[in-house]
Amino acid sequence: MSAPRTFAVIPARHASTRFPGKPLALIAGRPMIEHVWRRCQEARVFDGVVVATDDARIQETVTRFGGTAVMTSPECATGTDRVAEVARARPDVDVWVNVQGDEPMVDPASLRVLAGLFTDPAVEMGTLVRPLEAAEVDSPHVVKTVLALNGDALYFSRSTVPFIREPGEEGAVKRWAHLGLYGYRRETLLRLAELSPTPMEQAEKLEQLRALEHGIRIRCGKVTGRTVAVDVPEDVARVEAAMRGG
Questions:
Q1: Rounded to whole angstroms, how far apart are CA atoms 37 and 51?
Q2: To bridge 97 with a disulfide, which of 39, 134, 183, 197 should be the other Cys (CB 3.0-4.6 Å)?
Q3: What are the pLDDT digits (tens) for 79-95?
Q4: What distance in Å separates the CA atoms of residue 29 and residue 118, rounded to the nearest whole number?
């Protein structure tokens, strides 16, 4: 079977409480959104890479470095909503990958793994997981993923899951941490964007649980890479140091 036609979308909004104008912040001399766009290009698995924004300044910046930006509604509540708005106008694209606009060091190899999940026609939605580190087991800031034997997600939680009842059995179960990158079949994305928030989603504050609660299966690709996200201005220096290998 031939690979499905796949686009990456990078949602980018200018308004941010903790870091206004974040997509345009300069990192190693380039706007952050350009770093993300270039890494999507380096993955060499996308038939197109689009920045979805509600701000003309971001659109102008993307056009200037040679990218494509699509204006979307300022009413979009989430990045998923912004990706869905782009997808509605493109019935010719089979799979949409949502790439966070605040991760300038997203690994092209990880993007290839995510896009590759959709060569299986049974996959409706995909995401990525990496091995959970011992220091992260009890942290609510690191989302844990419990997997079925075929790699589908059974659950995502901020809690320590699965619970190991018997001492000495820790090595029998592999624990996984979730990476916030998603891919969707177009019809699954459009359906998901119309669904209301669900009880577990609201309790855990994890948007992906909406899909599971509505019976949408999420296939998980296993990777080892980690990213350094930019949440506040101080993170810029951390990313620049990581890019230098420091």
A1: 8
A2: 183
A3: 899 999 999 999 999 99
A4: 35
